[in-house]
Amino acid sequence: MGRKSRTSKSTDDEENVRRRSRSERSDRRRRSDRSRSRSKSSEKKSTWRLTEMARSLFASSSSSKIPEAEGSSQDIQTVDPEDNVYVPFTPFPPFETFVDVDRESARRKFEEESRVGDVLYVKVLRCDVAGAYVKPLCYAKRLKRDLEWLRLELPILQASMDRRVKIDDIIRVGVLSTNPPKYAFAQGAASVAENELPEFFREARKLEDTKFREFANERPDRCNPYLASQLGVSEISLHSFLFSPHTEDISEPASSIRKKQDNLMAENDVNRGISEMKSGNSKAALVLFDDVISKFPEFVDAYVSRGALHWNMGDYWRAERDLKKAIEMQPDHPNAKTYLIETLISYAKTFEVKEDWEEAKAKYESVLRHREDRRARSGLKTVSEKIERRKRNRSPSAEIVGEMSAKDRKKIRAEDREKRRSAQERERELAEREKERAERNRRIGEFEKFFAGLRK
Fold first, then answer.
1. CA separation for the pair 280, 301 (Å, rounded)
2. pTM
3. How many CA atoms lie within 13 A of 145 on its CB side?
4. pLDDT tens-digit series, residues 78-116
5. Sequence ranges of the domains in the chain
6. Which CATH fold topology does 259-392 show?
7. Which of 339, 388, 387, 345 lies closest to 364, judged by CA?
């Protein structure tokens, strides 16, 4: 009896242990399911947030509720028809600015998207007795589209024109019918200046051949921490566009501002130096230019200004050095190459005066490597002729000397020195004789004056 009770008790204990283990496993499973559901919920929330932002961005490009663009387009609001979220009518260029779209396909899309009541900005191409022909530029409301590159010509009949227009006028035109297409000038619409066109259209004109990545990198608003937090992107994430955790120099937290300040200070000092140079105070100007270059060695205008100052002072070697440095730092500088050419031509003329034809030729050739110049071409021709003439007139004795031994050359040089010494002595003797003759003539003159006085 006692054995049976002990057996049943142990069985109950084992059953309790099993029950507790099952309960713990079910609790862990429920916790795991809850954490998984929370992560899925956060992912859905992040995805929903990105989707909403994308929908808002696309809504700014095309929406049936965008009001007419009056004044600054930044004040215009549009309503997303699906969720009634207001988004700004952004100044960003339309998508066709960066996408290579076939012109014919874009023209068909323009015809398909056209609606009665649309308002376009157009430019008048020509006028005749039947009416006017205009080129559409962009939409004034509803759609953000660049239409100028389509090169369309829309007819405006004379009957629908309530005012006189002239070529190149920019006017608003309304769509009266789509099938067939029919357009008319907006009632009482006056000519519009180019700076009154929508901002997105004017921004697209400035981009020319800019790629989208370059455009995005230059936009200051893409580095907005608030936008990153709204999109659910961490500021220190590798996917963040923010500069601060990745590219900014920690030792210099405001490097871009510091660079602008340095350039402004350097520009002010250079302008002061130029004023001193124009007033004739070359030494003060040189001190200012040297100070700018020592503090801001990357400021190109300082080298150009100092080179121009050296050129004015006749120090062509230093002028050439500074101007070549400026061209090396900025090959397309507008003034550096011009000043360098003038310096090299002046430098070549000084070598011509010294009859150093080889150096003069080198300077003229350097000018022609930078730019074709009539003065350099003429000077090079003259110098080359003189070099050839000197080669032809070279004495045979000089060629023989080149073939002699070192001992013979030394002897010849000694003889030359002796000849020069003899010539100098002869010149000295002639000068002394001339001096004695002048002294004798002076005394004779004095005697003649003395005797003339006695006769009186």
1. 20
2. 0.36
3. 24
4. 333 333 333 345 677 777 777 777 888 888 888 888 888
5. 92-207, 259-392, 395-456
6. 1.25.40
7. 345
**Tens digits of per-residue pLDDT, 4-54?**
455 555 666 667 767 777 777 777 777 766 666 655 555 555 555 545 554
Structure confidence at residue 306 as a pLDDT band (50, 70, 90): very high
Q: Tell whether omega for the bond before 180 is within 30 degrees of 0, i.e. cis.
A: yes
- Of the candidates 338, 276, 259, the one whose C-alpha atom is nearest the C-alpha of residue 313 is 276
Q: Which residues face 87 on adjacent strands? A: 78
For the 92-207 domain, the top CATH level (class) is mainly beta
Q: Please tell me whether residue 181 adopts helix, strand or coil conformation.
A: strand
What is d(CA 429, CA 146) in angstroms, rounded to the nearest whole number? 96
First to last CA, the chain: 191
CA distances in angstroms from 156 to 159, 163, 164, 320, listed in the order given: 8, 12, 12, 63
d(CA 178, CA 359): 77
400 token code pair: 């023989």
Is the distance from CB of 322 to CB of 337 less than 8 angstroms? Answer: no
- State the DSSP H helix or E strand holding residue 125, giving kind and residue range, or none if neither: strand 119-128
Instruction: Decide if 150 contacts 134 (C-beta within 8 A).
Output: no
The residue count of the chain comes to 456
